[in-house]
Design brief:
The chain has helices at about 5-15, 20-25, 25-35; strands spanning about 40-55, 55-70, 70-85, 90-110, 115-130, 135-140, 155-160, 170-185. The chain is an alpha+beta fold.
Length: about 190
């Protein structure tokens, strides 16, 4: 940033009634804002399965990262929809990325250190390579068995529902084929 820009910004803040006390304490205001808006992070890489139709076993591998606050979700990742019954290398029907579009629900069951158990459900867009966005619903479940934190009746992993898909929703394997993890610690800069 140029020195002239810095000087103009300081003059503006002085005229607006914001003095050097505010400027000196800005890191404290940033920490207060973060504390007022808690954030849970999600990370996952797993495979889920849908129905087998006409000998085609519809499986999907997904990965992703993002964050959930009480009123929003941000995140995205990649996917491969493939036929598990096809010879190696498996036939891929669609590959691409996905992006979170809206938070539908979030339930934090509990925390253990920097890990958390809970369920997040979001509206997403699947964006196949060379294709148009496809609306879908992604529900991720994180259970922490080693901390005795479980979502009753919910299997670890993710469920992906694509409206109108003839093979139905992709559901997690039991036991899970992959990992879903929620975390609560966020970077704190010096």
């Amino acid at each position: 940033m140029r020195q002239q820009d810095v000087m103009q910004r300081r003059e503006f803040l002085k005229k607006a009634g914001v003095g050097s006390v505010m400027l000196a304490s800005f890191p404290a205001f940033a920490e207060l804002a973060q504390a007022a808006s808690p954030q849970t992070n999600f990370h996952f890489v797993a495979i889920s399965q849908a129905s087998t139709i006409g000998g085609v076993a519809h499986w999907i591998g997904m990965s992703g990262d993002g964050k959930v606050t009480p009123g929003s979700v941000v995140g995205g990742g990649t996917f491969n929809h493939f036929d598990q019954n096809s010879p190696l290398p498996r036939t891929i029907f669609a590959t691409g990325n996905w992006k979170a579009k809206e938070l539908l629900s979030f339930d934090l069951i509990g925390t253990w250190g920097s890990f958390a158990a809970g369920i997040v459900e979001m509206g997403i867009h699947l964006v196949p390579a060379g294709g148009s966005p496809i609306p879908a619903t992604l529900k991720m479940v994180c259970n922490l068995g080693f901390a005795n934190l479980f979502n009753p009746g919910e299997a670890e992993g993710y469920t992906l529902t694509v409206p109108g898909a003839p093979f139905g929703p992709f559901v997690p394997f039991v036991p899970a084929l992959g990992l879903t993890l929620f975390t609560t610690v966020n970077e704190q800069r010096d």
